[in-house]
Amino acid sequence: MWGYLLRRLFESALILLGITFVTFILLYLVPADPARQIAGRSATAETVANIRDQLGLNDPLFVQYWRYLAGLFQGDMGRSYLQRAEVASLIMARLPASLMLMVTAIVTELIIGLTIGVVAALRRNKPADHSLMIFSFVAISAPQFVIGILLLYVFAVQLGWFPIGGYGTWAHFVLPSVTLGLLGAGWYSRMMRSSMIEVLNQDLVRTARAKGLSKLRIVTRHVMPNAILPIIAMIGIDIGLFMSGIVVVESVFGWPGIGQLAWQAIQRVDIPVIMGVTMVSATAIVLGNLLADLVAPLIDPRIKTK
Amino acid sequence: MKKLLLSSAIALTATGALAQVDQDAPQGGEMVVTYQDDVATLDPAIGYDWQNWSMIKSLFDGLMGYEPGTTTLRNELAESHEISEDGLTHTFTLKDGIMFHNGREVTAEDVKYSLERVTDPETRSPGAGFFSMIDGFDTWNAGEGEGLSGVSVTDDKTVEITLSRPDATFGHVMALNFASIVPQEAVEEAGEDFGRQPVGSGAFQLAEWTPGQRLVFEAFEDYHRAGVPKLDQVTFNIGLDPTVALLRLQNGDADVPGDGIPPAQFLQVVNDAEYEDQIVEGGQLQTGYITMNTQMAPFDNVDVRKAVNMAINKDRIVQMINNRAVPANQPLPPTMPGYAEDYEGYAYDPEAAQQMLADAGFADGFDTELYVMNVDPNPRIAQAIQQDLSQIGINAEIRSLAQANVIAAGGEEDQAPMIWSGGMAWIADFPDPSNFYGPILGCAGATPGGWNWSWYCNEDIDQRAAEADAMVGDEDGREEAWRQIYLDIMEDAPWVPVFNEQRFTLHSNNVTGDDSLFVDPVHIPVNYDYIYSTEAQ
């Protein structure tokens, strides 16, 4: 187990190193010159040259990359080109908001997704099943931007139940969490439904029924625990999906998280911030996957760590 | 031998530009402004986007400023501004008792420090180049010498600035945010974070900044103008999509959507009777134009460029963007001094254009490329231009690219035959006709990486431009000189001026003030200092 953990941690570190390299190269290849972005349109050629020089943008790519890596190993993610503030402090100021949104969204999608999945499986091929599956299909297909605006309009503007975007109280969490969670809820409901159906057809259910157990007891004690296993393994992998959704949802709801930070940095070619946010989200995704792999054998003894 | 000249700004002040703004407006109350993007920085030496530009104006003051709601220069921190006869020496005397937000009085040393800071290469200010007329700029900005030799402190209240060439725009330069006065001790204490902890002498001071959420400006009690600002507090709510901002305004949670009316809802909002009194329309110091690369055939032929000028149906393009602009016929926008009212330009006449093209030897037309930034409405505008060109036989292929790529293409001498400037150029930095020349039409801008995408360089006109800028003290003569320069440029037709964007500022019923304050040419979206609350007594 410990050897496995060490190996996986080492692999994760390698993956992250690879991501720094690829991101760095991609940003280097973008034809937009960060020095010109900083200098603005009224700058003289000398000003632009001076800025390039100060930021070390004239150095060869590998020198720049090495300098970035060296900083990273000392915990220094550099300073934003435009805001001049430390990237680490910019990210730390915004990370809690994103993480909390992620947690509430995961809870939301599990509640909605699992409930729909269980009900649909038990009402298999009946009208309730069909309408729930249509709902989950819509939840998967609808753009989050549209869902977000729609929810805002109905529940915040028309009904006045929730604030119109922003951050602060628990009421602020509801609409963004639902918007972000709906997509996952769609996936989970379909997965839970097929997983439930599979378990329902297994021998253990027939045995339980033969023992005379009540239907409720069979479903809650025997079917659901077995059906939920593949779902839990999915949550870790799901973090990647969240990271992309968060950029959209944060911009619709004015959520002060790292998605918003990334979006603005990309528009302004603020390379240190783009690198920083990429590294943080990549770390989250890699750790999520690692966690999913580590947890899976604990809850399902049939899966063994190699 | 110094003859004292009254700058035109002071003279104009006396004639009553002030009358527009209600000086006796009640004080108190607050306002909420929304923005989508977080504020990049509030450091006046660094901030250079339209969002932080007017915020910085409220936090900081320079020696010069503008009458609220106008493009008229006035003294801000300066009590007086005297110009020597040769136009080379500017003597500024500070008003008494001006305080920084940290409680220290502003002195002449602060002026020197601030100007040296913005031109110091270490500061990496995008505005350093504006100060190139100050004596000693070249060495100091190259990282040599001990400060700006042209700036000297005579006494506590007086600073003398020597220029290396007479420059009539110097007053405007001293009114730019980049010329704001900052306290040395606060800058040094905050270091690179000064943009997050700004200390100035402006009407408001920063009370709170929660990244990604909110900035709060509070009225500065010791502000040097009595009765200003009118509001006690301005809150900027950050992170709101323009559509969401509009919902908030409808709900009474916001007063001014800083990003404007979202294009998709524009017609709906403008035609809604409910908003009739809440939308203010005004001009903008902006021109949208098509550049034709004068170094690339066939646009090296002036008749071809003129023919293109006659082929573009500007009214249709303006209609296409829901009349958020007015058709243009010259480089300068109508609100800019030097605009030629009577000039008719090249009227839309596709038949005459085709004839002209045929006479120039292109009876069968030709193939070319039109570069455009890939953000709506610009590709749609490019398609309209493409159709107009095809009417006279020119087959233009549209190259729709990211902003940075179009700018890069324009900066190459032989890359982009035609560029539609929308979304990139040009909005004036200050309300002076010279600001539409140098970088975008002058020889200096026609260099690799420059903004003169026509690569137009007329040395005679360059000479006249330099002479016009040296006409210190003769405002009318100078304005006339510039007017003639732009009319002569139109004879060479390096551009097709297409339209001048209009501003439409939406505001709630909670805030009011003269209409000019809501479309203030130098404060976008609104002049935070002079707008007042309807709830204030």
TrEMBL record, chain A:
UniProt-recorded name of the protein: Glutathione transport system permease protein GsiC
Subcellular location field: Cell membrane
TM stretches of this protein: 12-30, 99-122, 134-155, 167-188, 227-253, 273-296
Record's GO cellular component terms: plasma membrane
SUPFAM superfamilies assigned to the protein according to its UniProt record, in alphabetical order: MetI-like
Pfam families in the cross-refs: BPD_transp_1 (PF00528), BPD_transp_1_N (PF19300)
Keywords in alphabetical order: Cell membrane, Membrane, Transmembrane, Transmembrane helix, Transport
Topological type in the membrane: Multi-pass membrane protein
UniProt cross-references to InterPro entries, sorted A to Z: BPD_transp_1_N, MetI-like, MetI-like_sf
Any single GO BP term: transmembrane transport
Keyword Transmembrane helix found: yes
Family: Belongs to the binding-protein-dependent transport system permease family.
Domain ABC transmembrane type-1: 95-296
TrEMBL record, chain B:
GO terms, molecular function: peptide transmembrane transporter activity
A Pfam family of this chain: SBP_bac_5
Domain of life: Bacteria
Signal peptide: 1-19
GO biological process, alphabetically ordered: peptide transport
Subcellular location: Periplasm
CDD domains linked to this entry: PBP2_NikA_DppA_OppA_like (cd00995)
Gene3D superfamilies the UniProt entry points to: Dipeptide-binding Protein, Domain 3, Periplasmic binding protein-like II
GO cellular component, one term: ATP-binding cassette (ABC) transporter complex
Stretches assigned to the Solute-binding protein family domain: 73-446
Keywords on record: Signal
Protein family according to the UniProt entry: Belongs to the bacterial solute-binding protein 5 family.
Protein known as: Heme-binding protein A
Organism phylogeny: Bacteria, Pseudomonadati, Pseudomonadota, Alphaproteobacteria, Rhodobacterales
Gene symbol of the encoding locus: hbpA_4
